[in-house]
Amino acid sequence: MTAVDDARSLYRDRLHALSTASVHQHFDAFLDIPWDEPEYAIVPNDPRWVLPDADPLGHTDWYKSLPLDRQIHIGMYRQASMVKVGLQFEQILISGLMQYALTLPNDSPEFRYSTHEATEECHHTQMFQELVNRIGIDVPGGPAWFRKIVPVLTVFAARSAPFGFFVGVLAGEEPIDHMQKGVLRAGSVGHPLVQRVMQIHIAEEARHIGFAHQYLEHKAPRLGPFEKASISILTPVIMRLLCDVIMKPSKQMRRELDIPDEVVDAVWWDSDSSRKALRDTFGDVRMLAGELGLMNRVSKRVWRALGIDGRPSRYRSEPSFG
């Protein structure tokens, strides 16, 4: 066997392992969350909805100075809003995966895992929407441009530029995964429904992120010089763009909750601590970009200009470093 054959065989084995894991360890939104248990009930004036210090907004003096009932309402709104944005991203991802699967030939190693991932993402959308419904706040999720333009771009990329599509997959998955792991590691999750949703999402997203990493690693050697140069520059742009959609409160949320502009600016991303948090979010992606040969003199400047440069992770999901 040649080195190319060995790499292909290893790639197939890794995708098969991911598929097998999805068969034997998966979750159902309505079986694995005790929605109707008394401890999980969503009731008025529940202090478990107060945002923890691990949340960027919850850490601010402005938020801590508010009356308890306002802190609770803002906490519920913020959790519902982030979940709704995550739901919308999952819906877009599912449509992209199905478009991508349409291009695959028989015996493709990617087909089975793509459909496993789409199945799990469908459960995530059910889980997220159920949480939003029970919180009872009519949040819009992402900005209008995201909901209108990104689905169209995703369909095009999934069929015509799958390498770029899977970069976009990571751009949507990495910020949420990094944030949720940070909150759980800090032991500061308030309401148990939020905690259980995070636990399930993290467990299955680990496989989804792993698939994107494996795909990009396998396909990167086939990129031509122009493609490689282009994607090296587009990668940090896509990462930062989707990170802001996912992490920053929408204009509607800021208006409805009367969050001062200076608070939003400080938290996203004008203060030293928030800029560090932004850089830390992409340690795994910088590691991957380096391994794929997508870190060059020009692209490094783009990472720096967007405020998401820094040292790469030494291994996937390495905790934030100083």
TrEMBL record:
Classification via Pfam families = AurF
InterPro entries, A to Z: AurF/CmlI, Ferritin-like_SF, RNR-like
Q: Which domain of life is it from?
A: Bacteria
Protein name per UniProt = Diiron oxygenase
Q: Kindly list the organism's lineage.
A: Bacteria, Bacillati, Actinomycetota, Actinomycetes, Mycobacteriales
